Recover the amino acids of this structure.
């Protein structure tokens, strides 16, 4: 039975793995059950990684990006990049795409390439699940060059750090870094150049605008120059994936994912 399940079902949820363990009631099969669980998780992660692109933008032209109003912030799209500018310390520039995640049921990913920055006081990243109506909720996954850290934060009346890591631990480059946020139900993962940097379980928000984030930080001597960050190849993917390998992404795939990762 174990061998059949391993070879015959794609995206088998954890509850079925546990059922096999209970049904056999044989401690000697526990290593096999653990391997089975790991194999299934690897398969599910692979299916998520191949999820279809819902929106892609190489910034050859403006497709409807908009700036959240803030003092001394701006952006421009030209020559295949989006350039975000912040002219004041601790002022965040948030630029949003034409896409929001309201219909994605917390199953999606957002990615972008950061081509360069003109300032060693810059910070940059991705914003997601921003509520444009209330203007009081959002998540941010960003690199902070001054602190040499990568952050996952949310705004709940004030900024709250959910997870962070030292940038040196994930191979951050001076230029040409690829950032990616993956929303898997309750879980949020942030990647830098394909390497997992931050991870947390948080369901404070569900749905909202997705986009880009840039800003300037004060250097130790108090000097602040305009931070300018170039972004390219922005993409939003359907995060559900074809988990049961039937050729269609639908509610059955969501059910499998919720059994595995939680709602």
């Amino acid at each position: 039975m174990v061998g059949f399940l391993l070879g015959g079902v794609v995206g088998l949820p954890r509850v079925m793995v546990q059922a096999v363990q209970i049904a056999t009631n044989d401690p000697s099969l526990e290593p096999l059950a653990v391997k089975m669980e790991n194999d299934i998780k690897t398969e599910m992660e692979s299916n998520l990684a191949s999820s279809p692109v819902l929106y892609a933008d190489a910034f050859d032209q403006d497709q409807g990006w908009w700036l959240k109003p803030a003092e001394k912030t701006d952006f421009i799209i030209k020559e295949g990049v989006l350039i975000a500018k912040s002219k004041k310390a601790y002022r965040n520039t948030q630029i949003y795409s034409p896409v929001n995640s309201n219909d994605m049921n917390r199953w999606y990913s957002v990615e972008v390439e950061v081509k360069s920055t003109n300032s060693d006081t810059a910070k940059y990243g991705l914003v997601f699940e921003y509520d444009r109506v209330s203007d009081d909720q959002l998540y941010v996954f960003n690199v902070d060059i001054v602190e040499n850290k990568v952050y996952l934060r949310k705004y709940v009346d004030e900024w709250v750090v959910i997870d962070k890591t030292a940038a040196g631990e994930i191979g951050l480059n001076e230029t040409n870094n690829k950032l990616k946020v993956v929303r898997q139900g309750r879980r949020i993962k942030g990647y830098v150049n394909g390497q997992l940097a931050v991870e947390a379980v948080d369901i404070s928000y569900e749905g909202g605008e997705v986009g880009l984030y840039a800003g300037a930080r004060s250097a130790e001597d108090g000097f602040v120059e305009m931070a300018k960050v170039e972004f390219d190849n922005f993409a939003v993917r359907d995060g559900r994936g074809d988990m049961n390998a039937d050729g269609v992404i639908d509610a059955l795939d969501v059910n499998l994912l919720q059994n595995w990762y939680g709602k």
Summary: The mean pLDDT is 79.
